[in-house]
Amino acid sequence: MSDEMPTDLEVVPNPPPLPDRPDDGHKGLFGRVLVVGGSDAMLGAPVLAGTAALRTGSGLVQLALPRAMVPFALSITPELTSLPLGENPNRTMLAEAANKADVLVVGPGMGTARLARLRLWRLLTVDKPAVLDADALNLIAASGEWPATTSLRAVLTPHPGEMARLMPLIGGSDPAGGPPRVPTDDAGRLRVAVAAARAFKQVVLLKGKRTVIADGRRVYVNTTGDSSLSKGGTGDVLAGIIGSLIGQGMERFEAASLGAWIHGRAGEIAGKKLGPRSVLARDVVEAIGEVLRAM
Ligand SMILES: NC(=O)C1=CN([C@@H]2O[C@H](COP(=O)(O)OP(=O)(O)OC[C@H]3O[C@@H](n4cnc5c(N)ncnc54)[C@H](OP(=O)(O)O)[C@@H]3O)[C@@H](O)[C@H]2O)[C@@H](O)CC1
Ligand SMILES: Nc1ncnc2c1ncn2[C@@H]1O[C@H](COP(=O)(O)OP(=O)(O)O)[C@@H](O)[C@H]1O
Q1: In this structure, which of 140, 190, 231, 245 has its CB flanked by the most CB atoms within 10 Å?
Q2: Residue closest to 163 by CA, chosen among 197, 129, 115
Q3: Residue 284 CA: which ligand is closest?
Q4: Whose CA is closest to atom 39 on ligand 1?
Q5: In this structure, which residue's CA is closest to atom 6 in ligand 1?
Q6: Where are the annotated segments for Disordered (predicted)?
């Protein structure tokens, strides 16, 4: 990975507007999102992602998650539908659901066990746009190389810890010989996001204060958001928002940029109501409506 700052980038100053929502539309027009995630220890992550997608305007959101969790997940958000996953890899049913969807959100709370890996590898062969988050990224990092055969057109949404795990795949290392680390300054974060986008040929969103979105040619640095978002589950909310915008027809870089902006504003609004310390990820989901109404 080069230490040079790329000089051939278009810096996008503002996120794009929301896509149109025709008055005579129906749920089939506004995107079918499939969220694949959840594991014994983590139910909240896929539910937060799916609920955020519904709040952002998706017509239909289905959660593919372990069978035992389905009743609990649906009792939190009954507007979600489910694909119960059993102990076998269930890869055919999963691939069928993925093929019916307009966009996939893969990884929130999925864990890194064998079944999760098998399911992810099956999904990587589906020709769909996707948001790859959390454990989807950890599984790819653990495999040691970017899956060159993937047909997914993805937005990767690593936090700096996940990005550090991916860095060996783009030739990133710590000069001192320790584990790779993501720089904390703006220029360094931008360099890493652009290098990853170019190496993987995907859209990369590097989370944190001043989230960076890069597609290899363009870069957008988000300015919304504060410490109201510094709590478990808010990244899952972001994955759902971006998936929803892609499902509503937005191009991936634009969806990731606008999604980061909406997510940050929703965090700020929730923080004003409750105080930044007390905001939960679900409060960020609840604030999405206020953000969208004002746009
Ligand atoms: N309710 C639920 O169901 C929830 C489920 N969740 C699910 O949990 C799973 C594991 O995801 P996870 O992010 O919690 O663990 P992991 O990837 O090991 O990250 C921690 C490591 O990364 C680093 N690090 C993190 N952020 C950083 C930053 N901004 N800046 C810098 N470093 C940062 C951090 O480093 P440290 O600060 O400790 O030095 C640490 O090493 C995943 O499936 C997710 O979806 C969660 O979404 C929560 C709610
Ligand atoms: N101080 C902050 N300012 C702006 N955004 C923040 C801040 N703290 C966290 N965030 C945002 O909150 C989200 C946290 O995501 P992540 O670390 O993946 O959480 P989780 O995995 O628990 O859902 C990211 O979008 C990140 O950019």
Answers
A1: 245
A2: 197
A3: 2
A4: 161
A5: 109
A6: 1-26
Q: 225: Cβ below 6 Å to ligand 1? A: no
- Residue 271 maps to which CATH number? 3.40.1190.20
Which H or E run contains 38? none
Spacing, Cα 235 to ligand 1 middle (Å) = 9
Give the mean model confidence (pLDDT) for residues 25-50: 94
pTM for the model: 0.96
Question: Does a structural domain hold residue 8?
Answer: no
Residue 260 belongs to some domain of the structure? yes
Mean pLDDT of 146-164: 93
Closest ligand 2 atom number to CA of residue 162:
18
What are the CB-based long-range contacts (under 8 Å, 24+) for 179-182? 182/206
What is the whole-number distance in angstroms between the Cα of residue 2 and the centre of ligand 1? 27
CA-nearest of 17, 1, 11, 13 to 294 is 17
Per-residue confidence at 118, pLDDT binned at 50, 70, 90?
Answer: very high
Alpha carbon of 112 to ligand 2 centroid (Å): 21
Judge contact between 219 and 10, C-beta under 8 A.
Answer: yes
Provide the domain limits for residue 59. Answer: 29-293
Minimum mean pLDDT range among 31-45, 65-79, 171-185, 260-274: 171-185
Instruction: Flag whether 131 is in a domain.
Output: yes
Binding-site residues for (6S)-NADPHX, please?
Answer: 45, 109, 159, 236
Tokens describing residue 178: 């320790």
Number of domain units in the chain = 1
Enumerate the known binding-site residues for AMP: 207-211, 235
Q: How confident is the model at residue 22 (pLDDT cuts 50, 70, 90)?
A: confident
Classify the phi-psi angles of 171: left when phi > 0, otherwise alpha if psi is within -120 to 50, otherwise beta. left
Ligand at minimal distance from the CA of 36 is: 1
Distance 209 CA to ligand 2 centre (A): 8
